[in-house]
Amino acid sequence: MPSPSHAAGLLLIAGPTLAAEGSTFDATGSVIQMLLGLGLVIGLLYASLHILRRIGGGNTQGASLLRVRGAAAVGPRERVVLVEVAGTILVLGVAPGRVNALHTLNAADLPASPDGGPTLSGGKDFQTWLKQTLERRTQ
């Protein structure tokens, strides 16, 4: 059974030969042929995008392995980010086009907020903690 793409391909091939036989230029046929070809290409792009989403959308385990615990801006385009990976906290320096590992520590080493959770909301508590940690590291 011929598929719609085969039929569209036959129309694309047969269009110029039909116009050449009449020895007059058929503008309507050329426009229809162009629109069918454009529709075919857009349809193939849409179908491949749909297939890629279905294949790649099922991998949600990778997202649960990494968790951003906090961030603080240290410059106009630079940030210090805490990322938790399997019980280990990575302190990363992030700049445009560059990521540097600054320090690693255990998740149990993080200070706790009054409600029991870590104080890594990106506010003053995280900035104070980071400053104190860096001062202890340099001493």
Could you characterize what this model shows?
By secondary structure, this protein is of the alpha+beta class. 49% of the residues lie in helices and 23% in strands. It is built from 4 helices and 4 strands, in the order H-H-H-E-E-E-E-H. Strands 1-2-3-4 form a 4-stranded antiparallel β-sheet. A hairpin with a 5-residue loop joins strand 1 and strand 2. Helix 1 (4-21) runs antiparallel to helix 2 (27-56). The longest helix has 30 residues, at 27-56. The model is unreliable at 113-119 (pLDDT under 50).
Distance between the termini: 78 Å
SSE pattern, N- to C-terminal: HHHEEEEH
Shape: elongated
Strand ordering within the main sheet: 1-2-3-4
The share of residues in extended strands comes to 15-25%
Number of strands: 4
With helices defined by DSSP (H or I, 4 residues minimum), what is the helix count? 4
**Unreliably modeled segments:** 113-119
State mean pLDDT (0 to 100 scale).
Answer: 75
Estimated helix fraction: 40-55%
Radius of gyration: 30 Å
Sketch the major β-sheet.
Answer: 4 strands, antiparallel
The structure class reads: alpha+beta
